[in-house]
Amino acid sequence: MNEANQIRKFRAVLADDERLMREQLRGRLIEVWPDLDIIAEARNGLEAVELVREHHPDLVFLDIRMPGLNGVEAARQIAQMGDEDDGWLVPEIVFITAYDQYAVEAFEQGVADYVLKPAERERLAVTVERIKKRLAQRFSDELPAVAGAPLQQLLHQLSARLNPAGAAKHLQWIQASVGQTIQMIPVEEVLFFISDEKYTRVQTASVEALIRKPIKELVDELDPALFWQIHRSTLVNAHAIEGITRDFRGRQMVGVKGLSEKLEVSRSYTHLFKGM
Predict the structure, then answer these.
(1) Domain 173-273 grouped into CATH 2.40.50.1020
(2) Cα 164 to chain center, whole Å?
């Protein structure tokens, strides 16, 4: 490891909706890792995602249970950020949890760590040593950085455990780029999503925005009763469907309320509108 990496000061973001828990974790981290630079604190998952995008930390502490966007959902969004800027790797993820069954699985997968509430100094010290080792490996090229796929797979599993069948919690907000700004868009206001190779277009009655989340991930996160997949690259809000027509080639086309644009229905999904 070169001299620059030896003196590198690692940077962290903390996310927990309970202020006292954030203060307690910060205090314990100062004790066991005095060189760690805690650059920002978030009160929910949405803030955590925004702060990570802004500051590019080396690690993120995420409470699993947070309002709006829970820690697992926030981690799934954070895990997609690594290719947005050259030279920045997806941060290490540490889950803060009172639910040991989630934490044990995360630890066993080896792509994330955990801290049980309340954070005990001895257990946190163990986590810190693991994180330091993984971060050192990243910057020394001793081992390749953990690939995004295993982390995404783990997060999907944790999400399924966190939201069991019959009590699933679906995505409520979309954080999207509108020009040079980031806007929080309520999911129920989205008329449709259309993806290309790099971006997904988010269309509301008044806003056209872009996100870096493919349709295949949105399908897992959105309420399937509200958003229907009509093409491998298209999801439409069922409440926004005005009608179905056929074009000169015989393809089914979905009309969207308030817009002149029509959405193509691929052959795989024509059964949704059988008889129309």
Answers:
(1) yes
(2) 18
